[in-house]
Amino acid sequence: SPGYYVDTPASASQTACSPGSYNPATASDNNSACLDADLGYYVSQSGRSTQTPASTGHYVDTVGASTDIPCSAGTYNPDTGSNDSSACQDADLGYYVNQQGRAFQSPAMPGYYVDTTGATEQIACLPGTYNPNSTSTVATDCMDADLGYYATGPGNFEPTPASPGYYVDTTAATVPIACSPGSYNQETASTDASAC
Questions:
Q1: What is the pTM (predicted TM-score) of this model?
Q2: I want to staple 37 with a disulfide (CB 3.0 to 4.6 A). Which of 27, 51, 73, 111 is the partner?
Q3: Residue 8: is it exposed, middle or buried by C-beta count within 10 angstroms (0-12/13-18/19+)?
Q4: Which long-range contacts (CB under 8 A, 24 or more apart) does 64-69 make?
Q5: CB-based contact 79:104 (threshold 8 Å)
Q6: Alpha-carbon gap, residue 58 to 150, rounded angstroms
């Protein structure tokens, strides 16, 4: 059978080719019929008739491999059958790869940015700032919340308007200010205490 050979006349059993090798032929009579997996390919189990190309996000840089090697976090590889680690491309500015063995890079989400190549994570905009765009590449893409608005916590994609009964009188605010007891404010996004 393919993937096997018989090296003893009148044998009742056949011998499987080892992991890392394969045999596409039938009626093979010695182990030289088992071919080493090529660069960019691997054979993970014994008795195989074909070799498998390295998966996306992986490569195989040795002959006779029994597994493919994942690209490191921070890199990705969209191709199959890659035969060298250089096939693993660094994530671009504005993108990141947070796991090994990835076929694609992930864009920085709104509220975040990525300012280096080969990044393994995105960076959150600071409290008081926001960023409505994806694939941002610099911290200055995070904009200060305007008067009347605030941005609580990191990673905001839009500012929050001050609710009725509150105001925000500074830029880059992280919380709204409540109107004084005995006063009220029916408007949203109020910018100073005189609105109360």
A1: 0.86
A2: 51
A3: exposed
A4: 64/20, 64/21, 64/36, 64/37, 65/20, 65/37, 65/41, 66/19, 66/20, 66/37, 66/42, 67/42, 68/42
A5: no
A6: 44
Q: Give one word for 183, left, alpha or beta, with left for phi > 0 and alpha for psi -120 to 50.
A: beta
Token couple for 164: 């009725």
DSSP state of 193: G
Q: Per the structure block, which two tokens stand in for 88? A: 């693993």
Each residue of 135-193: pLDDT tens digit? 999 999 999 999 999 999 999 999 999 999 999 999 999 999 999 999 999 999 999 99
Specify the DSSP element, H or E, that contains 89.
strand 89-90
